[in-house]
Amino acid sequence: MKKFKKYFDSIQAEEELKEKTVKYIRMYSAKNIEKEAEKKHYGKGIFAMKKLVGTLLSITVLALIALGGFNIYNKPVAFVSFDINPSVELGLNFMNKVVSSKGVNDDGKELLLKTSIKNMSAEDAVQALVQEADKEGYIYKDGSTVIALTALAQKENDAIKIQDRIKDRVESFTKDKNIESIVYADHSNIQLRTEASEYDISPGKYRLIEKLQELDPSITVEQYKDAKVTDIMRKAHDLMGIATKAQATEKNKNMIMDTVQEMMDRNKNQSLKKQDQTITETQQETQQQTQTQIQTNSEKQEQMLNQTQTQNKTQLKQNN
What is the pTM of this model? Predict the structure, then answer.
């Protein structure tokens, strides 16, 4: 058993995982080890102990693999912020499955109580949330309600892919079900969650307030942290001075639609500028590295030439 303990202590794993493994091994041992030891092929003495240690080691490895895989599956690597007035945050694993969900405000908590989205794909989950939000009356019949979807991931390309998938699904679903609404989609780095948590609001709503602050730096998060997404869009419309041509009965909806489209266009342009800047910086860095390498090679060649000349002079002196 000393060999087993030494081997187990050497395994690199979280202490919680090790504790679960030990419990599993003890449970297995109580049920099966005594029974197996009685079999003839186990024998007695040292041979029996080696067999027992081997069995326990095998169980340990299998348990670690199983529990480790479970932890990996349940680890969020990306997030989706779903905002209307209910604000919900979804945690996605590497398979795009929902492994965590959080109601960021009271309406969001109520919405989650009535919706089962665990292990759904991100697309299925946002569809279920839209369906329940419509059922609970959060989506107005005049078509002015904005459904904001914000994808967050470490890599921008990953966030954009999630953003596009959930946006397409919600637009398709609302069209098929005749749910009059406006879909706003955006993406950001996962660091936004930390910044939003300081104000106890969703990353998506925090991102929208940041957009307002770009238009009017005097705006504070506190002013709009409890506002509906539609109201934030109305404020953005006023700040951007967008002219909306429509009849009075349609003006509210069209005003919001124009504002959402304008904001998404701005987001896209900002993203493209950022990509161009990254490409330019990469090219400059590559050029600098190339110049440095050329200079290094030149210095090495000059050094080798000087060494050769010195060796030749030395050889001539020796010959004379």
Answer: 0.66
